[in-house]
Specification:
The protein has about 325 residues and is α+β, with helices and mostly antiparallel strands. It has 16 helices and eleven strands. Strands 1-2-5-4-3 form a five-stranded mixed β-sheet. β3 and β4 form a beta hairpin. The relative contact order is 0.07.
Amino acid sequence: MEWTAVPVPVRRLCRRLWAAGKEACPVGGCVRDSLLGRRPGDWDVATSALPEEVMALFRRTVPTGIRHGTVTVLFGPMAIEVTTFRREEGYADGRHPDAVRFDAGLTEDLARRDFTVNAMALAPSGEIVDPFGGRADLAAGVIRCVGEPERRFAEDALRMLRGVRFAAQLGFTMEERTRQAMADNAQRVEAVSRERIRTEMEKTLLSPRPEKVGEMIDLGLLDHLYSWDKGVDLRPLRQVPAVREERWRRFCTLTGFPIAALPVERKLRRAVEHPEAVALERLALTGGELRALGVKGKDIGAVRRRLAAHILDHPEDNERRRLLTLWRQWQEE
């Protein structure tokens, strides 16, 4: 991986930290995605500089997680999360460290991360710092915990959902010890907020492999939400456009899951619970157009409802010409 692949604002930010005598390097998902040839969504930088030193070096900063060492630096057009190398101690709530110490080096900082593919950094020399075999796991297509899986999941139960989501997004498989530890620690997910659970489920549903959300179910990670039938075939989700309302609706239809068990906005809940009404609103053929074609009175509503029911199963048909063809075929029945 070359530094030329790093966005200019991130390079300039690191150079300023280096000039101040501090270590700084891109770390985590941005390194992983770059090595895979994917465009990173975010760039995170780890540094030896303390949060107050970061804020002193840059004019526009936001103390987004200063207790845990994170400062967001607004640099040019980018918002870059800059986090001080740290150690974490105690996880009484199963989600967050009880104490954070800023006396670590880069290797110790990488050691606290969740999965090997997320525990890599780009050194100033252009070399990849990879103390836990992340590059080998990238090549093998494997999601593996850094260190002992039991410990990683006891620290933060959200990591189990994230692991499944990474597998879905990247097309990877779960390393066996990591997978077994998920099953053994599944009850810990009860400590995760339902908002975070919804986010991880949704990212999985919108991935190229939405059926992987079934792994969350089969591993027992979602048992506190619903009495699931394990082993449900969720492969039909791939046939549904990667639109959140449509993927959620199909998921709920296949599993029986009540969307109201998660905190979702009214629009999404309505789309899942009353898809026929939403389909009617989105129908590409209006009542006025049907009236102009000679359809009268109550028949207009009947035709539109039938067309709406059709596009629930065949969303690709929601195009005016195709809907007119269907209507004419029904007239000939």
